[in-house]
Amino acid sequence: ENSRIALPIGSNLDRFIMKNQEAFPFASGELSQLIRDLAYAGKVVNREINRAGLADITGAYGAENVQGEAQQNLDVAANIRFTRALQKGGEVAAIISEENEDIIDLKTPNAKYIIAMDPLDGSSNIDVNVSVGTIFSIYRRVSPVGSPVTMEDVLQPGTAQVAAGYILYGSSTMFVYTTGKGVNGFTYEPSLGEYLLSHQDMKMPKDGTIYSVNEGGSKSFPQSVTDYIDKCKDRGYSARYIGSLVADFHRNLLKGGIYIYPSTAKAPNGKLRLMYECNCLAMIAEQAGGLATDGKQRIMEIQPTSLHQRVPFFVGSKNMVAEASEG
Ligand code: AHG
Ligand code: MN
Ligand code: MN
Ligand code: MN
């Protein structure tokens, strides 16, 4: 019956954030507010995604982003929703986004935080009613509060993240985040408009039997990746590839598995972006006992050099990523 799962008071996201505030690196309440702002924007985007097929907001927007991709209407809408929520919230000095070529300076020089975000991940899946997501990383600015935001503020390595998370708009919508003390997952209950704690202290299995890679590019994979995928096949592993990074990552987080986006002829540095896709999921993976590399090096230790930099990405169960990265 419906009430079988008892949800004690304190299990909704707002209360969880409040209760855990003292665990934050800088317990001033501003980071808590910022996470709530992101969660709120996620509700708005969730509503738009749910109605996308009815409300004429699917399809291409008619412009190309800095990535050279055709923007979808929902890429643009989600970018606006998150940017606006963060602007109104007042805790963020600047945003970098997949959909904006340059830094978005929110002209709130007294704010302490920087956001890197992929407002809508998997946007090619919207029109076919497949799961999509939002990915975010939170940093503290390094230049003095009150001064203009600098490139150094936004180009920090993943190890400097104070929090990271994603929203998965799937068969259920989930908000998953970490502040560096483990990973917790909340499932959105639409009739209450609340995210409820459903996945406490998530841990990724050390090993798994799922590999996720777009094998369409396999003719130009590095030899080491081809060798690893052959091993997966020899062992009878399952191939699963949704084509929305967040959804592929989330499944592997729960079930164990590896996600690889290697360098290919089409994407010589891989396709995924260090600042607002890889670092965030790397932090969550590590916090859950997993691992993330670019095939050689730990993702979070890469010193970024540009906003939209791409890197090969290997993420998931610790032993699988370690084995795939050796070659
Ligand atoms: P985005 O929609 O934010 O541009 O990200 C797309 C990414 C990611 O979600 C997905 O895993 C990957 O692109 C799929 O790429 P391929 O179609 O090349 O496999
Ligand atoms: Mn895109
Ligand atoms: Mn993406
Ligand atoms: Mn995107």
UniProtKB/TrEMBL annotation:
Annotated substrate binding sites: 121-124, 214, 241, 271
Record localization: Cytoplasm
Major location category of this protein: cytoplasm
Positions of Mg(2+) 1 binding: 98, 118, 120
Pathway: Carbohydrate biosynthesis
GO annotation, biological process: fructose 1,6-bisphosphate metabolic process; fructose 6-phosphate metabolic process; fructose metabolic process; gluconeogenesis; sucrose biosynthetic process
Annotated positions binding Mg(2+) 2: 118, 121, 277
Enzyme class: hydrolase
Keyword Hydrolase in annotation: yes
The UniProt record lists the keyword Cell cycle: no
Entry's Gene Ontology molecular function annotations: fructose 1,6-bisphosphate 1-phosphatase activity; magnesium ion binding
EC numbers, comma separated: 3.1.3.11
InterPro entries listed in its UniProt record: FBPase_C_dom, FBPase_class-1, FBPase_N, FBPtase
Domain Fructose-1-6-bisphosphatase class I N-terminal, first and last residues per copy: 13-199
Cofactor: Mg(2+)
Family matches, as CDD domains: FBPase (cd00354)
Co-factor remark: Binds 2 magnesium ions per subunit.
Subunit (UniProt): Homotetramer.
The name this protein goes by in its record: Fructose-1,6-bisphosphatase class 1
